[in-house]
Amino acid sequence: MGRYKLGVLVSGRGTNLQAIIDAVQRGDLPVEIAIVISNHAGVLALARAEAAGIPTAVVERSGFSSRAEQQRAIRDILQQRSVDLVVLAGFDRVVGPELLASFPNRIINIHPSLLPAFGGGLHAQADALAYGAKVSGCTVHFVTDQVDGGPIIVQRAVPVLDDDTVESLSERILKQEHQALVEAIRLLAEGRLRIEGRRVITAPPMQRHEA
After folding, report:
1. Are residues 94 and 134 in the same domain?
2. Which of 1-5, 12-16, 115-119, 137-141 has the lowest mean pLDDT?
3. 111 in active site
4. The domain spanning residue 14 has which CATH number?
5. If you average pLDDT over residues 98-110, what whole number do you get?
6. Does residue 178 share a domain with residue 98?
7. What is the total count of domains within the chain?
8. Where are the beta strands (DSSP E) in the chain?
9. pTM for this structure?
10. Please, what's the b/e burial string for 156-170 (b: 16 or more CB within 10 A of its CB; e: otherwise)?
11. Catalytic pick among 111, 123, 178, 209
12. Which of 76, 104, 132 is the last residue of a domain?
């Protein structure tokens, strides 16, 4: 059986990508990052991948007649690399049916709130502050045709402090994102998750028996 392969979609700085790379290099994550794809050229995430010797591709919207055609091109690259799991690590576009149909229950996303609170937008941290929430955090979830509405895999909470700004809250949540995303990928790579309706059930790790 071959190594579990990831395709990571990025759009910006790539700090979550770096967390995955670091976990793989430490031996904490039993996966291979087969390809990193960005919809923007020249972003830091691509430089992070290249520094780690990971293949990259740029698939910009401007090169295609429609978003659907662009996502079909992304799908084709992922399939050519025999990807087992697609990870959205700061990818700034909604995934359409072109990808969803080809990777059912095999696309995950990290969102900076405790879903279902403050989902469906790009300003979850600001929304949490504006609402007066006392707790926020992050959620790793399966991607479906409902934005930020797929079954939840992992959540991590952080307190919202009285003197928080969007920047300080975002930074504290981001540290938890790095851990939560690696945890979710590990559970999937180890085959320890199953979906029952909207619930994601986690099996315990396999017990090793001494001979």
Report:
1. no
2. 1-5
3. yes
4. 3.40.50.170
5. 96
6. no
7. 2
8. 4-10, 31-38, 56-58, 85-88, 107-111, 135-142, 152-159, 193-196, 199-202
9. 0.94
10. bebebeeebeeeebb
11. 111
12. 104
